Amino acid sequence: MTLSADEAARFAVVLEDHQEALVTAWTERVASTLRGRLSHTELLRQNTELRRGFQQALAGSAQDLSGEPAAELRAQLAELSSTRARQGFSATETAVSIFAFKDAVLATLDAQGTTDATTLRDYVALSSFVDEAALFTFDSYVRVREELIADQAEQLLELSTPVVKLWEGVVAVPLVGTLDSARAQVVMERLLQTLVDTGSPYAIIDITGVPAVDTQVAQHILKTVVAARLMGADCIISGIRPQIAQTIVALGIEFGDIATKSSLADALRYVLARTGKKGR
Amino acid sequence: MERVPILKIGDILLVSIQIDMEDQVALQLQEDLADRIVATGCHGVIIDISALDIVDSFVGRTLATIAAISKVLDADTVVVGMRPAVAITLVELGLSLPGIRTALNVELGMDLLARERAAADDDADEEPDGADDAETPAVPAP
Predict the structure, then answer these.
(1) What share of chain B is helix, strand, coil (3-state, %, to 5)?
(2) Of A199, A230, A280, the CB nearest to B139
(3) So what's the ipTM on this one?
């Protein structure tokens, strides 16, 4: 049920007249759910702001949360969820902070002593309005969290595929984590671009940090090596752990004439021996 | 019709392909290059494809043919400057350009040719054991 203009106006008056008591009661209830993870002063400030938001929305006779009078309130709620999400509060803790507003209002109404059917009706209408606000908070919370996760995934992709220069003419790619198609593509492009940029004829692909090598991962690595060869650079695969070596053989993966070494040091020594022989 | 210029630098012929490799251009280049190798007596050919966005199977085959013709005329061929995107596309298509030696840039290509030459001279001086292509492995099928 939506809030009628009369009800909204009546509550706007209640919120205005009893603001002190209301905010105090509300803050106490929220503080108990957050178990002291947010300071009392901070909560008091937030709730004072929000009370003003609610009061203004109701004074503007907001029927529901989507209307124009509630625009300011929506912005405040979104801000609240965004801060809470970043501070590591759970979705429930965030939403309950808004739900507690209902208890505070009820306590205020009790104190007023008006307990007729009209008050009940009013209260139920307000309750649904607050519910809507809490759901909106929940939605914003989830959205902020999803943005955070997407950002982190992107950062992880950036972080996990560095190409480092190991020696004059030798670059290395230490692969860490599971190699799926998307990452393999990023690794391949970045490695090849680095080869061109630095003019390095040797690349070492180190798979120490790759937890498992299946046929698909092997295929990705092979493609990278073949592409590098097409461009005129040679790749060495290093960091093959005993377990991985057994898996490779069991799966029947053929690395052909691609040099494979057990450690990065071996691979570097191998490359240096080859470049040394050529008198570079 | 456009032509690809062939430049002589010391003992090397440098071909820098800056235009789209249409079939006629490729065939003309093949002819011109054979003429120039004989005329100059050069022992190395560097083909720079860093300006090429697309290398299709025809261009690939032409490059291989040029390499084979040069070999007959006692000149080594190195294809240099292949772009990463081109290499990735070739690998995805399963084209591996057999019979073509590659290097990252012109400088490394010249190094490679110098080494090949030195190895060939050594082999001629000592007993020929034919292990001269251990330097750059052939590209295996992906």
Answers:
(1) 45, 15, 35
(2) A230
(3) 0.73
